[in-house]
Amino acid sequence: MNVPFEIRLMLAVAGRLLPCSLRLEWSREWLAEFSHAFRGRVQRRGMFVRAAGAIPDAWTLLQECGIKRRLSEAAHSRMTTVVLPALMFFILTLSTLRKPLPNGRGSECLVSILSRDRQGAVSTIYKSGSPSSSSISMTSCKFLFSSSKV
Amino acid sequence: MVERLNLTYASAVILEALAQRKTYGFQIVDGTGLPSGTVYPALRRMESAGLIESAWDHKGAEASGGPARKYYRLTTNGRKHMTVLLDRYPRLARTSKMR
C-alpha cells in the first residue's frame, strides 16, 4: 500500500472510536481515497491535514450509531482490561507529579502568621512543587493558604 | 411539501456538488474547497437523512488498478431539498448557474 505509515496510524487511531461493525467499511473508504491520492503528485502536508478530518468523521458516525453501543463493546473488549488500568495509573501518576498535596512531601512551610483571626485560626503559607521545579522558576510554584485551629 | 431539514450552507454546497454528478469524498473536498473534517461528517448526516446514497465503485477500481472508492450521489429526496436550498441560499444558485 502506498499510503504513508503516519496517515495509516492516524486513521487507525480515529477508527478506534467506531464499533467494529462500522470500522472496516469506514477505514476502507478513507484508505482507498488516500491510496488514489498518493498515486499522483500530492502535497504530503495537505494530505496530513486531510487525514485529520477522519477524527470528526468518526465522531459523527459514532454519534449516529450510538455512543452507548460503542462503550458496551469496549467494555467487553479484552484490551479494556489492560488499557483502562494503565490509563488510570498514568493519570494518577501525572496528577501527583504535577500537583503535590498541601502539607505533603512536596510542601514547604514559608511563613507562619502568628496572629489569630476571628475564628481563632492561625494562617500558614506553604509553597508546593518539587524542589527542582521551584528552583528553576518561581512562577510554577503554587502558594497555598491553610488554616489550623490553635 | 419537502420536509424541513436543518442543513447548513456547507451541506448545501456539498449537495450542489453532488447534483452535478456522482462523486467521491476527496473530489468533493477538492471541488468545494471545504476541509475533509466538514465534508465527511456532512456526507454521513445527509446519507442518514436520505438525501444522498453511496455505493462502492468496483468497476472503476478494476480499470484504474487501485482499491474501490465509495461514490455518493443525490437521491430523489435530495433533489427536492436541493431546490429548496437554492431558494434559501441565492448565492449558491448563482455559482451553480455559472458552472
Care to describe what's here?
The complex is a heterodimer of chains A (150) and B (99). Chain A has 150 residues and is α+β, with helices and mostly antiparallel strands. Helices cover 56% and strands 17% of the residues of chain A. Chain A is built from seven helices and three strands, in the order H-H-H-H-H-H-E-E-H-E. Chain A has helices at 5-15, 20-37, 44-52, 54-65, 67-75, 80-98, 131-136; strands at 108-116, 121-128, 142-149. In chain A, strands 1-2-3 form a three-stranded antiparallel beta sheet, with no helix packed on it. In chain A, helix 1 (5-15) runs parallel beside helix 4. The radius of gyration of chain A is 26 Å and the shape is elongated. Chain B is of the alpha+beta class and 99 residues long. Chain B is built from six helices and three strands, in the order H-E-H-H-E-H-E-H-H. Chain B has a three-stranded antiparallel beta sheet with strand order 1-3-2. Chain B is globular. The N and C termini of chain B lie far apart (28 Å). Chain A binds chain B through residues 28-29, 31-33, 35-37, 39, 49-57, 59-61, 64, and chain B through 24-26, 29, 35-41, 44-45, 48, 61, 64, 66-70.
